[in-house]
């Protein structure tokens, strides 16, 4: 059964009138509530979009258009929508929340088997978006907080508010700068072009976060931001990848899988988009169907020109990018 239209009243009842005790979280475009639909006998996540946000309204329309056509076990299922008094989206409920909570905030430990299953599931979702539909879906905001986990810790990619549909032959679209710093490929800041390669870059960052248990960018006091890509690439060059493995794993992991995940993460996050793999190629390595790539011992410098049009990228954003790709290349532990 596909997504359906809900009435405002039934969603208000399901969420106890959007009560604070049912609030799961809040973002720039609205809040998400836990609800229970009695007629379906199921819990749901109800996303209430702020009408004051023009961007939020735009993302609401995009999400309904794109996610309603998706049918894959590793994408969050849209159960329905409502636009009576508010703009509301209704999703299947994810009991284990988001990946970033378990990696960075919670006290629960994701075992290695679970982590590898999550990255394989995320790769499967991206393969479906890029290659297996009538049109290519560019997600444009792949990050650990948008990877949801069901009751069995299966990965479900969500939040398609920034997504775009393009023809398979085209594979990219010029668009306004969008995404999250730390997960955005360097070319996004210059040509403002979303592509399969930029999605693959974001996937690579999440893969490294899963392996290392560290955020894509870490800021310590007055120091320059520390790039996870730079940290891992430095260890790769020294043949000491074990130095950056998540210490919370206490060395309980499959060494071949860990090496594969880290090297695939670096490969996907290569600064040169032309040297990144397709998500299919990345999956083949993760599944041990292809050999590991041989990468440069030093992290390559991204080749891009500073944009002249202020509408493309502000100076403050460029400074963050320069810190991420250049100033953060020094050694950190």
Short characterization:
GO terms for molecular function: ATP binding; carbohydrate binding; protein serine/threonine kinase activity. Residues 18-295 form the Protein kinase domain. With 333 residues, this protein is of the alpha+beta class.
Helix and strand topology:
Layout: E1 4-5, H1 8-14, E2 23-27, E3 30-37, E4 42-49, H2 54-67, E5 78-82, E6 87-92, H3 99-105, H4 112-131, E7 136-138, E8 147-149, E9 155-157, E10 164-166, E11 172-174, E12 193-195, H5 196-212, E13 217-218, E14 226-227, H6 228-237, H7 255-268, H8 279-286, H9 315-325
Helix pairs in contact: 4-5, 4-8, 5-7, 6-7, 7-8
Please describe what this structure looks like.
The longest helix is centred in the middle third of the chain and has 20 residues. The chain has 2 domains: 89 residues, Phosphorylase Kinase, domain 1 (2-Layer Sandwich), CATH 3.30.200.20; 231 residues, Orthogonal Bundle (Transferase(Phosphotransferase), domain 1). The chain is 32% helix and 17% strand. It contains 9 helices and 14 strands. The strands form 5 sheets. A 6-stranded mixed beta sheet has the order 1-5-6-4-3-2, with helices on both faces. A two-stranded antiparallel sheet has the order 7-10. A two-stranded antiparallel sheet has the order 8-9. With 333 residues, it is of the alpha+beta class. The chain starts with a strand and ends in an 8-residue tail after the last helix.
